[in-house]
What we know:
Blueprint: E1 8-11, E2 14-17, E3 22-25, E4 28-30, H1 34-45, E5 51-52, H2 53-60, H3 69-83, E6 94-97, E7 101-104, E8 109-111, H4 128-147, H5 150-183, E9 187-190, E10 194-195, H6 203-218, E11 224-225, H7 228-231, H8 241-248, E12 252-261, E13 264-273, E14 278-288, H9 292-306, H10 323-336, H11 341-354, H12 359-374, H13 380-397, H14 402-416, H15 419-432, H16 437-449, H17 453-466, H18 474-481, H19 485-498, H20 503-515, H21 519-532, H22 536-566, H23 573-582, H24 586-599, H25 620-629
Parallel strand pairs: 9-11, 9-12, 10-12
Antiparallel strand pairs: 1-2, 1-8, 2-3, 3-4, 5-7, 6-7, 12-13, 13-14
Helix pairs in contact: 1-3, 6-9, 6-10, 10-11, 10-12, 11-12, 12-13, 12-14, 13-14, 14-15, 14-16, 15-16, 16-17, 17-18, 18-19, 19-20, 20-21, 21-22, 22-23, 23-24, 24-25
Amino acid sequence: MNTTTKRTAVFGPYTLDLRSAELRKFGTKVKMGEQTFQILRMLLESPGELVSRDELRAKLWAEDTFVDFDHGLNSAVQRLRDCLSDSAESPQWIETVPRRGYRFVGQVECSEAGSSSDGLPGSSIVSPGAQADENAEAAQAQESTKALGRPSVLFVVVALVFLLAAFPAVNQIRKARSAKRAQLIRSLAVLPLDNLSGNPAEEYFADGMTDEVITMLAKNPALRVTSRTSVMQYKGVHRPLPEIAAELGVDGILEGSVGRLGSRVHMTAQLIHAASDTHVWAESFDRDLSDVGSLQSELAEAIAKQVGAATSIASKPEKEVKPEAHDAYLRGRYQWFLYDYDGSGRYFQKAIELQPDYAAAWSGLADSYSATAAMGWATPAATMPQAEAAARKAIELDGSVAEAHNSMAAVDLFYRWDWEDAERESTRAIELNPNLGEARHMHSLVLTALNRMDEAVQEERKAAELDPLTRPWAVGWALIKAHQYDAAIAELRVRSGAQPNDGFVHSLLWEAYFYRGKEKEAEQELAGALRRIGQQKFADEADQAYRRGGFQSVLESRLNQHKLNAAKNFVSALLLAEDYGRLKRKEETIHYLERAYDERAPFMAHIQSNPDFDFVHPDPRYRAIVSKMGLPTAH
């Protein structure tokens, strides 16, 4: 059914206004970008018929647009499915024809009528008979009006005057109610900003701006702001805001959109009181690309004013950042959150080349180097000296950047083994930004190295409040290091129920069960963790080893796998020391601990709290390692 001359398309609970590009579900507006709308429009023009990928490409991407078309189209169609609560596996509306295109498979009705104010299908359609009745009633009303005497007309005029006079009062009441709701907001989540361009290649810009708005708002000590990593899990997800707020534990939601055209940036934002799901403030901003920093500051000031929170955020950044350098920085952060540390490092380096005094870019570069070593993807000697140099440069350029001090704390903890300076730097990062979840997490890691385990657990809980979805495993990890295995199991079981597909939660759960002596449960969690990260082969091997010789056989199988890998790739000596430690093979454990010391393996910082090494604590060779590292003795 051709829709080019129609006004609305109705299918299931959805109504699409083809002129305003507004989609509603049961009357509630569903966010949809321009590109998503165009795809849906093309599919609705030929329901039941194939719309080829080439047709979509010709319609949506200009010939001179340089973008990964396959990735872009797949992402756009997935966003459309998200809008329609549809799935590729069991399509209700959008069916994929492999390698060819897509078709709309639902029943759709199109009409000239526009969407009604409530957006319900068919509510604006009037039958000819009803229209005739309305015309008759209108004529009768007109005759009745003529019959009214002057007193009646005067009464109407007076009533209108009173109504007009009441409008300002009503408006003031509404403003007062909004202000009262705003005052109740003491915690906030900034949902991922919509990409106004509709171009998937610009997603990094929208995500980067989201990150920077969060960072700016988080500098306000009177407002708890949820981390970027937690809120990004709601990107493209259309769910009731009160439901999202409850999951994140916040009072308010800030949502909006951002896009750039040439050298201009346009941003919209609205503040929602979550409990009542009511709008309390909205604003739009237009700035030059070179003035993005002031836009973020202005937004943060406006939000602080709305919620009655004092703020010391400067309205103008001290240093202007070149648009090209800022763009490279945003791309670097985008890759960072994809765990592409090599890619992020290249973009941060590019930002530095474009603007050598860009402190945030230096901090990002330091983090890219540190993370590569901490993940065990490179030797510490290959990356940590560069991390240290970059972190020092960031602090030298701008000592007010909390992330820079956090970067330095990581270097002190994982490489320099300067425990006093690590605590000083992590504490300074928290002072500069109490809402920085990364700083709370780093401080917990420092406290663990200092054997202050109760404080470490408490600090990790604070990090979890700020980042409820970022590291669901972290509190459990801290409890394991504190040797509180029952508490760790309880914590991780709750987390696994909320996020059942998080492989690392299950990895720590199997360790907690193992340390508690529950080997059957440990094996089940280990195999489950391996399957969740796509290692079906190793999961099957673990199952077979357990049946063959119990959990001891499982541990030996893991050791052999790691040794085979070490013959081809870099494998940290600390990982092998842990394998031997779980098998209680003392000589090999000490040998690899000594190698890990020489290697300066990052997590040697936690050697004393690692349960795998409890049995070697009395050994003089172990004590010598602890002494050489300068760690405060725990045992």
